[in-house]
Specification:
The complex is a heterodimer of chains A (318) and B (279). Chain A is α/β, with parallel strands linked by helices and 318 residues long. Chain A is built from 13 helices and 12 strands. In chain A, the strands form 2 sheets. A 7-stranded mixed sheet of chain A has the order 2-1-3-4-6-5-10, with helices on both faces. In chain A, strands 7-9-8-11-12 form a 5-stranded mixed sheet, with helices on both faces. By secondary structure, chain B is an alpha/beta fold. Chain B has helices spanning 6-30, 36-40, 42-52, 76-86, 125-139, 158-169, 190-193, 199-205, 218-230, 264-275; strands spanning 67-70, 146-151, 175-181, 184-185, 188-189, 209-214, 236-241. A 5-stranded parallel sheet of chain B has the order 1-2-3-7-6, sandwiched between helices. The chains are: A alpha/beta (318), B alpha/beta (279). The A-B interface holds A 28, 49-50, 52, 54-55, 57, 59-61, 63-71, 73, 75, 90-91, 94-95, 98-100 and B 109-111, 117-119, 121-122, 124-125, 128-133, 135-137, 139, 158-159, 162-163, 165-166, 169-170.
Chain lengths: 318, 279
Amino acid sequence: MNLPRAFNPTRKAFSEQMASRGAESDFAVFESDIGYSTYSYLFGDRFPERYFNFGIAEVSTMAAAAGMASNGRTVFVAGYGVFLTMRALEVVRSFVCYPHLNVKILSSHGGVTAAIDGVTHQATEDIAFMTTLPEMKVLCPCDTASAKAAFDLALKTPGPVFVRLMRDPLFELYPEGTSFALGGSKVVREGSDITIAAYGDMVFEAIDAADRLAARGIRAEVLDLYSIKPVDWAGITASISKTHTLLVVENHQARNGLGTYIGDALLQTGASVRYDHVGLEDRFAESGDYRGVIETYGLCATNIEAHAKKLLAANQGR
Amino acid sequence: MEETTITRIEELKDIANEVRFRIVDMVYRAQSGHCGGSLSAADIVTALYFEIMKINPAAPDWPDRDRFILSKGHACPVQYAALSLKGYFPLDELGTFRKLHSRLQGHPVAGKLPGIEVTTGSLGIGFCEGIGLGLDAKLRKQDWRVWIVLGDGELNEGAVWEAAQAGSKFHLDNVTAIVDRNRLQNDGFCDDIMPIEPVVEKFRVFGWETYEIDGHNMSEIVRTLHVARQVKGKPTCIVARTVKGKGVSFMENVRDWHGKAPNSEQYEQAVRELRGGRT
């Protein structure tokens, strides 16, 4: 894979954008004592009067954000995905989404990207919870340019927005200033044999897998579904109308992730598409280095390649 | 300090009695809802809406208004009754409580009914929302206040104590929490389910200015709310000793009346006690 290495993780890029936008908009930022990990402190250093650290207390942090947002101010709540989407889930549902408030969630350590910290810190069910909530919009950028754009999209989109960010720096994919849209996607590799759709860090594994498949004469198209909800149906449809084959890859439980949603929708449309899904297979991961964990649990290019080949073999048999 | 005349206190008592009638009437007509905890808070809520809070029913979104949050959202009949009597919406609408398409949802929902500031109903959360609102008033350098009514069983919730720390940390002297200390929760007496004493002491050590009052003594309620408004540098908590089901003899101090609707016989007796039988 021929992509430049990233110096900064998406959590930092997002928070840098948050700090840089602080002068032109009067949003507040709420933190639960991991500001040096979410990099929300970058905003706090520049705008201390609008930066509130509630201590290690995600439920009251989220509910206080709802209270402030009810008075018309946009609030970004920063934290780890596991805590914000599970401990504070009820608050997000009943007191942020139900009243359609401008609370935006900066959710770091998405998927097993918190690999080294172990399962208690790996948010591998967050997309299931957040996409299930009415009113919620869900984004997952993969690099610096898309993370900065995700901040701007979260700020300008009315109502609650959840942004899944990663712990570790990976690669840079998009030139600075690339435009992104709610409900959009990007074709990052063009191909006509199979569509591999991914988001976040799995975009890079999908690109790597596409390179491996290309060496064997298989032309894979890679879609970056950075807008998870709403998802880009037009983009997906355009791609699978060429390939008739779709493999969804996500750093998340395979059950009830984006793939489940897309697969369900495809069944409803009656589209003639070979479909498969790569994700965590109904199990927890473990501590370890990032590369080691994603390879052990199948969230990697070689496993994507294997699934792709199997799907295509099934296609040829028709 | 502002004062309330003796004549006005007598008027407030009459209004509180009318609020109590509307509570029982609403729950009877819905055949569902929470009488006990609504009746115990009736004097406190009446004092706030009819004497203390800076509000204007004709302009429910007036930016400088005081904000009221019923953190014990299940007691919303008391808030709906007060709002309606205050003129936020027609009294007839109380008859739609808990019915399909009503603005009077089973627990308060913001954005439907004028006068409901935030959605509540999950215990502990309204209190946290009030902290966020108090912070926003400070940020905007506006002098409106946040008044929050909590239940005593609600104090079991950990989020209450998270928010109590935050209120103290951020010096929210524009926030006053009133604990409706009726000593009963859903499953029984607080002392049996989960003892919470010493409540006043707990809030004090969390950094709140505290008061303990008789929650059915209108002049004491009003006087203490006036005092709370003057406190600077920290939030205030008023623990109001009350009687669950207050005003309806057979509902008083009876666990079963936490969330039960009266039948026609019970309704008639309640109306006799509250209004001399006049509906």
